[in-house]
Amino acid sequence: MSPQALVTGGSTGIGQAVVDALRKEGYEVTLASRRNGWDLTDRDAIERLAASLDSLDLLVNNAGMAESAPLHKTTDELWDRHIALNVTAPFLLSRAALPLLRAAPQGRIINIASTAALEGAAYIAAYAASKHALLGLSRSLAAELIDVKVHTVLPGYVDSPLTDRTIARIVEATGKSEEETRAFLGSQNESGKLIAPAQVAEAVVRLLSEEETGLEVVLQ
User: DSSP 3-state assignment of 151?
Assistant: First the structure.
């Protein structure tokens, strides 16, 4: 029987790249995203999702959102949505899937965080706080779960639909061109360019063979 993987937010960008890479590795992959009917901010939906699986070897918590606003314009709703999708959903799904992961030959959880989990930045209080919390969750689970390996991938700005939406908001707010904005965001990475989703997927695949737990892969 092929190993089983669940990837959240697996319809576009990083998620789609991870799904493609895992399938090449022989995994049978279940997708869970809003596009295919799974609202991961709905606690009941997460319980139903976990209950729909017969077995699970790998959980990739990738679904997330990223919106920016200065503090005085960061509404309760904007804050709550970041926390609900970026950290509460991975927590709930990891907890719900734990019995299946423990029953696997070697269960793994890989959380897709962000370099925003390592330092703050202006205008992203809700996003950075949620990704800091996700990294803290990963570290705590890695310390606790002896029988399930837990890792984190922390990319910088990725060339993905999520970043495209960020670029559109910046263009609208500043009047800068899309090309200027894309180049600026790329310059925030050490490489000087946006990270390809396939690079994140490659990091996920590399972690599948690691014997240690609690590894953190930073991609910039």
Answer: strand
